[in-house]
Design a protein that fits this description.
Layout lengths: L6 E5 L12 E3 L3 E3 L2 E3 L6 H13 L11 E4 L5
Antiparallel strand pairs: 1-4, 1-5, 2-3
Length: about 80
């Protein structure tokens, strides 16, 4: 897959109603909330829903947009 030169990432904080927060084990970052790079043409909400499903197997609905991280560096 070719990476765009402007990378947009989205992540989600998943809470189960009892105060438990979902974390996933990253390869080199320890435990993190699920998220990742959105695909070309994908909107942020669909991207975070897809990332959470890919990383945890959980289907979610998004109630609030909290944070978006953008990296405008050139991908080499």
């Amino acid at each position: 897959m070719a990476f765009p030169t402007h990378i947009v990432s989205a992540g989600g904080i998943v809470e189960d109603g009892n105060g438990n927060i979902l974390l996933v084990k990253a390869h080199d970052d320890g435990w993190v909330y699920p998220g990742g790079i959105t695909e070309v043409g994908e909107n942020l909400i669909d991207g975070v829903i897809r990332e959470i499903k890919e990383e945890s197997g959980i289907d979610v609905t998004v109630s609030h947009l909290i944070s978006v991280v953008s990296n405008t560096a050139i991908h080499k």
